[in-house]
Please model this.
Amino acid sequence: MTIHKELSIPYLKTIGIVNNGFNGRGFQNPHSVTIGPDQKIFVLNRCDVARRKAIRIGVMNYDEDYLYEFGYGFGSGEGQLALAVDMVFDSTQRIHVTDEFNNRVNVYSETGEYLTKWGESGSGEGQFDGPSGITTNSKGEMVVVDQRNNRVQKYSNDGQFIGQWGQSGSREGQFNLPWGVCVDGFDNIYVADWRNDRVQKFDDSGNYLMSIGSSTPHDSKLLRPSSVAVDSLGNIYVADWGNERVQVYDDNGVFVNTLRGEATLSKWAKEYFEANPEEKETREISDLTPDLPEHLNSPYHISSQTESYFWGPVSLCIDAYDKLYVVETNRHRVQIFQGAK
Amino acid sequence: MMSTQDVKLMAHLMRRAGFSATRSELEKFLDKGYEQTVEDLLSPGDPGNMPDDLIRRYHVEQSELRELSGAGAYWLYRMITTNNPLEEKLTLFWHGLFATGYAKLNQARALLNQIDMFRSYGLGNFKDLLIKLSQDPAMIIWLDNNDNHKDAINENYGRELLELFSMGIGNYTEDDVKECARAFTGWTLKNAEYMAMRAGKDSIWPYGRIAWHYEYRNDDHDEGKKTFLGHEGNFNGEDVIQIIVDQHATAKFVATRLFQFFASDDVDSESHDQVISEMVDAYFDSGYEIKAVLRTLFNSDYFKSQECMYSRVKGPVESVVGTARLAGSYQQPHLDVDKLWFQTMFMGQGVLAPPTVEGWHEGVEWIDSGSLVERVNYAAKEFGDTTKSGVRDIITRLSRTYSEQINVPDLVDGCLDLIGPIQVGDNTRDSLIDFVSEFSDNNVLDISSFDSKGSKCVAQTLGLIASTREYQLA
Model:
């Protein structure tokens, strides 16, 4: 076991710009990111109420070339999504997207063809009340957080129920509106136990192993964690949503670092300012990391006024090269860091 | 033992100092008594409203607060679920008096920060409130104080501070306006140039809105001597506000506006003047405390009189929020909560979007044929759903008070009582009875289960009562 007293996690770049319309490059309240074939980056746009009919997945590469997008509109019809939360590729390169309103998982091909759906409303086996986080393990099984049923469920990648664990509560193995989920290289399962302010780690069978974030020193405690990811060395990254930051722990759950966000202008943002030089001019003489008055010093308020900081970090993803992708739904962008090499 | 009069008086207080109250809430207040309830309303504790984390998780637009409808819905959630109704009602009052709108700001977060400020200071000292108002970034952009410089004043904020926010026209001169503006030079917001440009262009790029906060620029403040309302000195904004709050005209203005919002749309009788005079005394005796002014009002004989009851037209927000609270709606995050904000807009009072700096024209001007249809349809939809907790509570109380097999007149009278109590004329009561009778067998309806025909009839009757003139009055 290695304890990383100082874990360097350098910032790499930002991808994104707010998209105020109904299609095209840019993001609209992104809620999840996953990496597909050829390192293509898939971003799930949950979309606000005004633009929800354009709920979609945008596809780009690391160089910020916007490649294509797909979506079938807002609703409960075939291929449609209402409140999309998370997505993941399965072992056959199909994308599974959770929908916490429709209580189902939609399945699409890599190019956006709608294939099928699985799950239905309820609290029995194979049923959901608010499916949120989704991931897949080395056996090709799908692991889904069933938030309002306060449990984790396992399915085959064609939606056949395999097993479940968890119940409402705050003890080991219990949950309070859990959100995100991930697995590590040993198929251990990490669940962002949102309203219990912790991440719980389980083995592949759902046996409780440890909790992270609830008994650490005060300044490193989690507040409403939304997502979790693990790099190839076992370091654990937690989207500390309520504190607008990412907390990093070693494989033993010992706190090692905090990321607050350091976004720079994306390629698309630079192009915007090239077309709007007067706005760029006033921006350049502004202080965009100001000291704030006391009454606005909550993490939420700080982030709402400090553009480079994380604001609404809802989802994390680690790619095959240990790059960490932090999705900020309120800032319509993804900040990318280099995780442990 | 509570009397009918006690219930009527408490319901009146809660319609005015809140957004109506369910019968369960009324019973709790009645246990405490009227004066203690007034004191509790004036000393709000934990609001117990829907938590921010739940709202932000399920409503991305209410987390980001980029646009108007999401921000409006966010505030409506709070009004509907708060345990501190007067705190929210008074915040709505200040929002109407110090009317600041989204149209020019293009910044919903700043507006909600202003609303938070009203919530924090609204029951406190009027001097503190005016200072915070003058430092509020939304107000600064709304009335151009970011363009008020020591070498080129902009009078807009100084003028409205005197005319619309404190003293009223006729109590100051044009020179006072200019001197007031000079005192507020340098009161601006951080990165004013960039933020004003973004507001002007409605720019959300590249990464959404950047919220605002106040900044004082000493190098842009006019340090010269000023003459204001007969006083001379090197006044800054705080000094000017001290002079303003000391004016009798200010006390009368504030007392009158509070009286019109909480007691009577019109000020047209000696009893009205008497209460306002007592409110003015409370203002000075307490050192400008709004809480003291409101305590005087709510405990006055006039406020508790039959004459005061049902003498105001409910504003659209009062109507929407009050009905939602009575029906038990929106207690959990709801996919379509944004429609609530549109509902207030269609009825003529979109929160965070007052038509001008003068706010809304209230009283009978709230009602026209279009807005009345919106009110009636909205209430009918809210009350017409027997899955809602408030509707179920009324059905349960009816079956407990009368019988699971309830006769038609009892059903009508029970609904009128539990939705208010509301007293309607004989013709209205007869019409309601005729309506309900059509659903009954031998003038009796079964309300033993929530999905029975009788229970559905109760829900429809509540919706029908909500269309009466009496329900539209507070």
